[in-house]
Amino acid sequence: MTEVLNTLFVSGQGNFSEWAPFILRVGLGLGLISHGYPKLFKNFAQFSGYVASLKWPAPRIFALLAGLLEFAGSLLLIVGLFVHPVALLLAGYFILVMLSAHRGQKFQQGWELAFLYFVGMLALWAINEDGAWALASIMF
To answer: What is the pTM of this model?
Structure first.
């Protein structure tokens, strides 16, 4: 047992490359689903009103797209389907969030979380692997 622990954690000889994308996609997905679910199923009218206040055209449509992207995109990341296109779409989405919803705010009092999601999604896209327990690796 000591030899296994030494190999994995001390000598750095263990191979954890398939776990990095798994940790990112499940962690980001679980965090983001808590933002998308209420936008779609609890506070849609309030959220679409907020989108209208940002002067976006067709606020109900954009609110629906944002909620779907956050909720359905999170589900796809968690199960490991279409990870790369979803991560790239979400990275672009978070650029829009930072430029519109958090415009003029300070980093730690506004756009810090959107920035962290952006960086995480970009990293997940750049890894170019779906990781352990990805449904895509089973299906395709």
So the answer is: 0.85
Burial of 121 (0-12, 13-18, 19+ CB in 10 A): buried
CB of 52 closer than 8 Å to CB of 18: no
Is the backbone of residue 136 left (phi > 0), alpha (psi -120 to 50) or beta?
Answer: alpha
pLDDT at 137: 87
Q: Quick check: 93 and 66 in contact, CB under 8 A? A: yes
The model's confidence at residue 17, banded by pLDDT at 50, 70 and 90, is confident
- Cβ pair 63, 39 in contact under 8 A: yes
Cα distance between residue 61 and residue 72, in whole Å: 16
How many other CB atoms are there within 10 angstroms of residue 132's CB atom? Answer: 17
Query: Which amino acid is it at 133?
Result: W
